[in-house]
Amino acid sequence: MLIALIKKFGAEASAIYPSTVPIAMMSATDIWSTYIRYIGAVGVAVGGLITLFRIAPVIRKTIVETFREVIHLFKPGKKRVERTDRDIPLPYLLLGSTAIILGLWAMPGFHLNIVTILLLIVLGFFFVAVTSITVGLVGRSSNSTSGMTITTLLITCLIFAGLGWSDQIHLIAAIVMAAVVNTAIALAGTTSQDLKTGFLLGATPRSQQIAEVIGLILPAAAIGFTIYLLSDAYGFGSTKLPAPQATLMAMIAKGIIQGELPALLVIIGAIFGVLVYLMRVPVLPFVVGLYLPISLNTTIMIGGLVHFVVKRWTSIEKNIERGIIISSGLVAGDACMGVFIALLTVLKVIPATKAGLLGNGFSFAFFVLLSIWLGWASRQGSVKK
């Protein structure tokens, strides 16, 4: 709708910032990339702030519980601790955290100074605590990783802009900070979920925590290699590898630090975020839909329609979960094949620009059949309402 409105009412206008060509000469994709994506990016930021506002009671409880734990450490006397309450001792955690922070500070390509390190400590600690409490009390699905990451990036960039830091080095530092905090938030969420499950099963938290640390080493190396492989094969930000989340972070950081955010689109995006919240529609899914390209939104919409149809046809929750598990397997398999094809591209076995063998018509027909099969497989053994 926004693309059509901009095309209709801007047809007679000359080039409008940030575009350098008139709207009449722009395609639908150009309009989305130049205007709609900025509206969605600001909406995501507003959605993140609204999410934090809604979990303010949880944040307050987090701060209180954290100070209680710290005060308890300095109380005299040694209390007997149950096996199911034994964690890794706090001195070891402080030592490990200090080593990580010093390592980040010493890394020459990250360009982190004392101000960014202090920001990293404060924001990282705060959002990790919020994530742990939120996941522990409610569940993993309630954790707003994107919202907290965007909020971290916004706070950092606003401070940098206020200090007059607008060069490339500080732009990189802001992105690094957001990436580190994002990783910490994600790991805090999954670790809290694992510890909660372990508690229900009677596990020892310390053993779980040690296993979590060891289990990070191999995946981190594999994922790092995979990212470089994909970058060499296609290049991040290209049409074959758009990387929308990374592009969103870069757009926000560059827009605030270097003053490149178009004011009108910022205002529209903020208004959209607030209006969607007042309409009681989930803000982040809506504005992320604005930000993502139509090609991705279309497939997401079709998946949602299949889920809607299955829920109408069956009253058994297990069947719906079966569909989610099957979909997760398809996503994982597609990702593995994408990495394999990227490896063949890097090895010069196939070119990066090679067209498909059977054409778009076959792909579309196969996608329709796959969607129908997914709904049918989810319904197996169900009972109609």
Automatic annotation (TrEMBL):
Pfam families: OPT (PF03169). It comes from Candidatus Neptunichlamydia vexilliferae. This is Oligopeptide transporter, OPT family. It is a multi-pass membrane protein. The chain crosses the membrane at residues 35-53, 88-108, 114-138, 145-163, 169-189, 210-229, 264-284, 290-310, 322-345, 357-376. InterPro entries: OPT, YSL-like. The keyword Transmembrane helix applies. It is found in: Membrane. Keywords: Membrane, Transmembrane, Transmembrane helix, Transport.
